[in-house]
Amino acid sequence: MAENGSADLVKTEYCTFAEPPDGLELDSGRVLSPVAMAYETYGELNSSKSNAVLILHALSGDAHAAGYHSETDRKPGWWHAMIGPGKAFDTNTYFIICSNVVGGCGGSTGPSSIDRKTGRPYGLSFPIVTINDMVRAQTYLVADLGIEKLLAVAGGSMGGMQALAWATDHPDMIQSAIVIASAPLNGAQAIAFDAVGRNAIMADPAFKHGDYYGDSPPAKGLSIARMLAHITYLSDESMRLKFGRSLRKSESYNYDFESEFSVETYLDYQGRQFVNRFDANSYLYITKAIDYFDLTAQYGSLDAAMARVNAKMLILSYSSDWLYPPYQSQEMVYALLRQRKKVVYCNIESDYGHDAFLLEVDVMRKLISGFLDHAMHPDKLHALKPAKPVPDTPLNPSSPSTASIYKGRRVDYDLIVNLVDARSRVLDIGCGDGELLKRLTVSKQVDGMGVELSQDNVMSCVLRGIPVIQADADQGLSAIPNQSYDLVILSMTLQVVAHPELVINEMLRVGKKAIVSFPNFGYWKARIKTLLLGRAPVTRSLPYAWYSSPNRHVLSIRDFRVFCAEHSLRIEREIPLSSRGTVRFLENIRAEEAVFVISRSFE
Amino acid sequence: MAENGSADLVKTEYCTFAEPPDGLELDSGRVLSPVAMAYETYGELNSSKSNAVLILHALSGDAHAAGYHSETDRKPGWWHAMIGPGKAFDTNTYFIICSNVVGGCGGSTGPSSIDRKTGRPYGLSFPIVTINDMVRAQTYLVADLGIEKLLAVAGGSMGGMQALAWATDHPDMIQSAIVIASAPLNGAQAIAFDAVGRNAIMADPAFKHGDYYGDSPPAKGLSIARMLAHITYLSDESMRLKFGRSLRKSESYNYDFESEFSVETYLDYQGRQFVNRFDANSYLYITKAIDYFDLTAQYGSLDAAMARVNAKMLILSYSSDWLYPPYQSQEMVYALLRQRKKVVYCNIESDYGHDAFLLEVDVMRKLISGFLDHAMHPDKLHALKPAKPVPDTPLNPSSPSTASIYKGRRVDYDLIVNLVDARSRVLDIGCGDGELLKRLTVSKQVDGMGVELSQDNVMSCVLRGIPVIQADADQGLSAIPNQSYDLVILSMTLQVVAHPELVINEMLRVGKKAIVSFPNFGYWKARIKTLLLGRAPVTRSLPYAWYSSPNRHVLSIRDFRVFCAEHSLRIEREIPLSSRGTVRFLENIRAEEAVFVISRSFE
């Protein structure tokens, strides 16, 4: 039933192009003509036509992404939770388009369409289409709607592959791309599942080499293919929680071969439902398009593919997705970074498996709305007023604070802002909620990016428009090219990383200079406790007991100096700090923390 | 071709039992009569009949586990790499038996057997069998071979389920059980895959409700079931490495629906091969038996099931097995521990997925041969001579050493051995290669178990007969019941665990007393460096630089005393040590390490 405030009543529209003698040229070399596209739109196109977002559907999706088709319609579009007023794709702001793919069975030209040459359905005479072919057809639709450049393309699973095809094949037609639960190529395991599904369809005697229209379709085969695929959309954990070993009807086993476990009857139902709404030939064509998707083969390498991207990219993966596991998204993120592209990445913690792209609505809303807002208004952040006044003398942070030195006011932030050159490229390792990068962007107009492990912090960064990738600095920054940043910052993080040597080496590989701040274990209060009491120190800047400290390393200003000397690092600046400001003598004793600017000493 | 030194030429034998009017009573309430069992044996039964090991096969296995059937036979038995002279199941020492399961199609009575009542194959009139039914049939065979008690039962996957059924349903007929890549129940995801496979078979028009004997079998359906199951036996990683996206014949895509990726043609081949050697009805019955397997439902809970076990248990899982993931093995290990059973556990690092139980031969050889040797000779370790003389005065470890205090001679070991009561129950957290437990077993006849994270160390423990489970102490010892040990030891490990507070609390929950040893950060050389140099200390007992130390915590004797006071822990003994022996005054300054005996002070 249509809700208030939702995309409400919508209807599917159609556009036809590539009429003979023209045609849509396909990757196979064949030509399809004419091509009809079923599509829906939600929200209003603005006068400058700059707010259009194209939604791209997955294997079994269609043009009906949101809203209801009638007052009595009980089921909304497939991404209704994500599209509408105030939702991730906010129809108060954006003009949303969704079209059915070529090869599909939701109104666009596909194997069940009538071939004008024969007057009969294409069946298997329909040409094989690729993800790029699907996208090429979409470019006609977008042009037909009078849009020269899309604000964004967005999709999950096969929809993410289409977004990648847009970004690599039509880089100047989109401002940004959102790639969710997807992959740069379909791997061996995913091909294997698709192949078994196709085998099940083609083994069904009702299949008749695809020529079953007007007769019974290969329902058993398609149902088996769907049941199988459905398993890959869930996770072991979600199936355990949803079904476990519960039995559908009885308390005890039937001792026969009827479906009796709840998970069996659920899959039976999924199979039956699917058969009613989907064409088996389209299933073959679309899974084949997915299997053929491989950016690395198409462009020679993933890096060569990503080198073509002009769009800002948002890449999202899910921790429990085993169909397109997070590492496949991460490979794309790293290739984009190597190619110095703008990318935001988050691996969303979820039990839902691949289906999470339909279900993790709250997290996606934050990440996508923040990302789209920044895509629409790239200069918004720079136009913000600084949240707090920035001190004007670099070595004397203004406001003394009585709060814990790095739980309350971050004395080192003020100092660091003053150490950074305007308009420089800055990487902040362990960037937290993006506060320092925000200050640097506002005051110094830096081109900044953060690296952060915590999902909450990543969401905060994206919401405030700070580019960020979710990654563990301890696993290296190997994706980031040599000397690609002017400055790399590691603020109050050195003492908690597992491998400080690796992290500092990586910082000075990717950056020309590094700023490192850390609590000074040489601080007199710490030393006196060690000497007199023979105990591990607890002070204001080292506020934890030995047994509950997140700090994996204790080091002093002097330790860090020796480390730099031993590792051929040049100390360009050394700024010892207490809560009252910079410390000018006996710094290893008097400073509670320290900020170092270091570089590689190559001579 | 038969190799030298292998099990060589073997032949399948048969035994028949439960002849009318007797019969094999099944869990369903039906009775099967008569029952034939196909089996093979390798090696010789000793005169005391105490060296018999029953091997239990998985879904598609049979009685032919090792050796060759003829001189021209090109393929040996399915576990040939594991069974033979010098192999994991050493035929020079053990008498190995393997039988085909009831319901199978490898010579034992199954749906393709002739039903004497009708003179025709059973087909679907064959009764549903369970894993327990399979095992009950095996008890007849074992009795027929004159064996009262098996030294061991061992199997992977469904073979592991049979081993579990032996251990819970016939606890006094086995000395030990080896459960590999298995689970205490078939979970929702595993049931789902089985159900899709059964659907594929039953959807094949050649299936004819199971009555296809003498006609064409449902080859397409069975082939699809096998292809699907085969995917679950591999891992994403192994498929990526083995196939990737390579094409079978051409350099470029065919743009049709023939199999073209290598992974497709591989699965086609697996499907075709399987159809030639396996009966579709047996596939239905055996997958149903697997789906019905659930120790928790059978006995009310996993703990109630494990309470029945008398055998020593070896449980092995594989890191990349997603059909029966490691957590399912761990649940069994923890239930066994809660029930105070003898269990050894290792989660073997492997990319091979579920199939690792057929492939990770080297690691399995070490673990299984060590475990079997200990099962055969439980008193062997006690009979060993102590490796090194144990000092006779508890507080004065004899040999001073010039080696690094805990890289060379472990001064604290000698001391700890003297602190332990004879014949007490001892748990050693972070037991390393089992050296301390070995010394305690030899000198004090303790009933010891180790907890260790490193796979290599776990293997060393098993090879020397030390019971060990692979686990992370930082994740708690929650499976171990309250006060189930007299003593829990944490030797030179406190400083590297992430959560010392949790670990110590857990030690004193599961043990009446605890011994903790650690390097003393209060040692004068460490302090002087801190005071004078203002640097993190590097000394003989703290030999690492701040940036490369595995130590996550620095603490001193005094820190630990305060910790005990604050946490209501009673210090029963406190023994400060230097490399020259115990330290009798100024211990927080002069001791390089310390050994504490602590208990919970309840008053």
Biggest interface, residues from each chain = A-B, 82 and 82 residues
Name the CATH architecture of the largest domain in chain A: 3-Layer(aba) Sandwich
What is the oligomeric state here? Answer: homodimer
Q: If you consult CATH, what is the topology of the largest domain in chain A?
A: Rossmann fold
Q: Give the CA-based shape of chain A.
A: elongated
Q: Assign the structural class of chain A, choosing from mainly alpha, mainly beta, alpha/beta, alpha+beta, or little secondary structure.
A: alpha/beta
Number of helices of chain A: 20
What does this structure look like?
The structure is a homodimer of 603-residue chains. By secondary structure, chain A is α/β, with parallel strands linked by helices. Chain A has 4 domains: 1-45 and 59-146, 3-Layer(aba) Sandwich (Rossmann fold); 149-185 and 294-377, Rossmann fold; 187-292, Rna Polymerase Sigma Factor, Chain: A, CATH 1.10.1740.110; 385-600, Vaccinia Virus protein VP39 (Rossmann fold, 3-Layer(aba) Sandwich). The first copy, chain A, is 34% helix and 18% strand. In chain A, the strands form 5 sheets. Chain A has an 8-stranded mixed β-sheet with strand order 1-4-8-5-11-12-13-14, with helices on both faces. In chain A, strands 17-16-15-18-19-22-20-21 form an 8-stranded mixed β-sheet, sandwiched between helices. A two-stranded antiparallel ribbon of chain A has the order 2-3. The longest helix of chain A has 16 residues, at 188-203. The first copy, chain A, is elongated, with a radius of gyration of 28 Å. Residues 1-7 and 387-408 of chain A have low confidence and may be disordered.
